[in-house]
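User: Some background: our group keeps a shared notebook of sequences we're curious about, and every so often someone picks one and asks for a predicted structure to add to the entry. Today it's my turn. The entry only has the sequence so far, pasted here. Could you supply the structure so I can complete it?
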Amino acid sequence: MTRPPAAPDAAGPGAYVLGVDSGGSGLRVALGRVELPGPDSTTLCAEPVRTGPGGIDAGHLLDQLLPAARELLDRASASATDGAPTGGVAALAIGAAGMATLGDRLRSELPGALADALGVRRLALAADAVTAYAGAVGQRPGAVVAGGTGMIALGTDLTEWHRADGWGHLLGDSGGGAWIGRAGLDAAMRAHDGRRGGSPALLDRVRAVFGPAEALPGLLYPRSDRPAVLASFAPEVAACAGADPVAADILRQAAGHIAEAAAAVCPTSAGPEVEDGEGGEVALTGGLFKMGEPLMAPVREELARLLPRARVTSAAGDPLTGALRIARALAAGDLRLPLHPTMLFVPQEHGSGQPGGTTVREEPRTG
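Assistant: Of course. Here's the predicted structure to add to the notebook entry:
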C-alpha cells in the first residue's frame, strides 16, 4: 500500500483541515483543526453539484466550495482568542457521490484550482462510500454498509478495497430503499390484480400515498427521480410488516441482501485477518437503517448467521465526518486507508505519494 509522506509544513501550529461531502442534497463543508477532533464549524450549500456528459462539474463544485471555505476560515479567524495561532489549510478531502465513475474532471481540475485558491497542497478525492467508511469505522480494518435509496458495501483490510453492489436500482442496490419500495409496490399491484403474492395492506397504502393503483405507472415512469420515488414507499413496507406477512418477507429478503453484501467485503469473512479470536467491525450507516426494528431485527439475524464473529455497530460518524478524518490524517502523514486511482485519489504533484498502488475488488473473496 502506498502512503503519502508528511511534509515538514503539513500541520503547523493553528493549521486547519477542510472536509467536503457532495451528494444529492447539496454540498456540506466542515472546518476543523489538525490537532483537534471534530469540526469547528460547518456550512451547507443546498444546490447539488451538477453532473453532465463530462462527469461531475468541477467548476460548479468550486463555485460553491470556495466561498463556503473562505466563509468558514473568516469566521474561525474572527472568533480566535487573542494570541491564538491561526494557520492556513493543511489538507482538504472531498467525498462525492459518483466520484469513482464520474470524477475524471474533479481529479484533473481540482488539485491545481485548490492550490491556487486556498494554498492547499494536500488533497484527497474520495468516493462517497470511502468517506462513509472513514466516518463509520475510521482507519481500522472492517466494513461499512451504506443504505439509503441505494445500497453499497465497502470493506478493507487496509491493503485493498473490497466493494459489493452500489450498481444502481436497475442493476443492483439490492436491499436498499428503492429495492424495498419497488418490492412493496409489486406486492400492492399483485393484490390489485388478484395475483398470488399480493398484499392488500400494501395496496391500501398505495392508494393512500399515490392515489388509484391503476394510475401509478403514469405517476412513476415519467419521473427522472424514480429511485427516490420507489424508496419513498419503503417506510410504508416497514409500517405494515408487523401485521402483514408479505411486507415482513420483503424486509427479510432485503436483510439477506444487505448481509450478503457485508459478508462479501468484510475482512473477517476470509478468516486470516481475524486476530485474538475477534471478528472485525461491520458498521451500518444511512437513512435506510432508521426504519427501525422491522428491518433491523432481520438484518442482525442475517449478519449473525453469515458473520458470526463480526461486531455490528452503528456508524460513529457520517460521510462529512469521514472527509474531515481523511483530511486530518493526510495533513499528519498518517493516511492508512488504501489509495486507489478512483476510490481514494491523492495526487502526487500536490504533496502526496503515488495516486494508485492498490486495487478494488468487486467480488466476494474466497480465501
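Suggested note for the entry: Confidence is low (pLDDT under 50) at residues 1-10, 269-277, 349-367. The longest strand covers residues 16-23.
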